[in-house]
Structure formats: structure tokens, C-alpha cells
Amino acid sequence: MARTEGRSRYARAAKLGLVGLLAVPALAGCSVEEVIRFGWPVGVTPEAEAMRNLWTWSAIASLVVGVITWGAMFWAMIFHRKRKDDDGTLPRQTQYNLPVELVFTAIPTVIVAVLFGFTLNVQNYVTKDEASAGGPADLQVEIVGFQWNWEFLYPGEAGPDGRPVSTLGTSDTIPIMVVPTDRSIEFTQMSPDVIHSFYVPEFLFKRDVFPFPERNEQDNQFVIDRIEQQGAFVGRCAELCGTYHSQMNFEVRALEPALFDRYIQLRKETNPETGQPYNTGEALAALNCGEWCAPEAISTKPFSTERGQLAAQVDG
Fold first, then answer.
1. Where is pLDDT greater, at 274 or 114?
2. Domain segments of the chain: what residues?
3. Three-class SS of residue 216?
4. Tell me, what's the pLDDT at 311?
5. Superfamily of domain 139-304
């Protein structure tokens, strides 16, 4: 009778614990979507979604293994604990049981192999150097990271001076990379000085920018199949690259294809007001399409990256 009451007490405690665990997301104000992301941020590309799916199912698999392990552990602790009427007889032992040992070896091996296979598949998709549809990407963008700013060039689009359309960041201006939604984009990266890292949090992906990649045999290209929504996304350097590394920001501005085509066309023309080719801000302002066409960065702000700034501050 006492043993039955004890088991009922443990069963009630287990049920209360399960209810409490299930109530945590609701009490914390989390949506179902947020819960199944397991803390993974929201992405804006198919590659980001592929990584999110990998993370979600890996977390679920880990929880399943954890529940089985915890269940076996607590079952042993509860039902094989020492009791007052214990005569010292040990429960049935299973050491040196070959079938059990084979199972306990095979199952982890299968789990690791499956996780490795899915991880490799997602990694190859994220780091691919051509569009999933096959053939070249719809747009080519060159990324130059330097101490301590960025330059973005469109090698397939020539401006009025015959040189590629480009955006160069300065200490006073955050460089804006304007790209289209719903088109594949190929990025090619290089650095003239040290290692930097191209990182846009909403892409859920970062890629080191190596100096002279052709000499170092580094893969400096990757392709995203599309950006799925318009927006302004802050970008950062994610590799410690010197004094003003933390201030080396940029912005990715994703516009619908028609707006992007108009933007590129403007960059190929001369601004009648200045007599000079349209720069990034002027072209965006001329589009007159609201927030996403703001002529200055809206997701970050400029910091001075002049090499003499720190010395001037110290002297002052």
C-alpha cells in the first residue's frame, strides 16, 4: 500500500512538472513559431530558413535523446532506490550484455551520421557558388572590406564614366548596398589589407573576407537565391580587424525588382542638379518610395574611422 501511494505521489509530481514545462512558453509570451525556433533569429533568405530548420530539428532530436536519458536515469533513481525493507539484494545486472552494448553503440552512431548528413547538405546549400536554379546568378556584387569601411561594386553595370557602379563608405557616410528582392545574388569578396568578415544578421550567415583570396586559395564567392522581403538590414564586420573594427558597419537595402532596376538605371545617369553621376543617396531619394528609399542608412549610424582620431582624442 505504501509503495503504491509513493508511486502515485511521484506520478502526480511528474504531471505537475510536465504542465509547468508546457506553460513556460505561454507565460513568457512566446508564440508557437518562436518556441519551435528555439531562440534562432528570423531570417530573410531561403538559406537562413534552411539553417533554421536544421537547428530546430537538431534541437528536437537532442530533446528526444535527453528525455529518454533523463527518463531512464530518474526511473532507476526512483524504482531502485534503497528502502527500509531492502535485504541488500541487487537488481538484475546487465553489464557485459553484448546485445545491449551493441544497441547503445549503434544508436549514437546512427544519430551522429544522420546529423552529419543533414549538416553537410545545408552547409553545401548555404555556401554554394551558383544559383539553385542553375547557371549564373541574376546579379553580381563585389564586396571590398578594408580598414575600416566597405565598398560595394556592381561589375555588370557601368556608370557614366565607364567604371562599375559602386558605393564607397566614408567616416561620414554608412555605405548602403542596394539589392533586389526575389532575385539570386552572387557575392565576391576581397580585402586589400587584413581579414574582415561580411555579416548580415538577417542572412544568419557570415563569411570571412580574405586578402588576396586567389593567392591564398580561398573560396571568396557565395550565392543567395533571393531576399524574401523589402527592408533595411544592418551589416557588420565580424572579424577583429584593428582599432575601429567595431565601427565598421554597413547597410543592405532590399528593394522590389522594379525599384532596384530603376535605382541601377539612375546610377548610370548624370544628376542634372549636380552635373555628376548619381551617388547612392541621390538615386535612392529620386526613387521617392518611402522608408526603403531613404538616402541615408536607417539601421545604423556613422562613426569616425579616421586613423588620427584616437591620437587627437588622447592629445586633447
1. 114
2. 2-78+96-126, 139-304
3. helix
4. 44
5. Cupredoxins -  blue copper proteins (2.60.40.420)
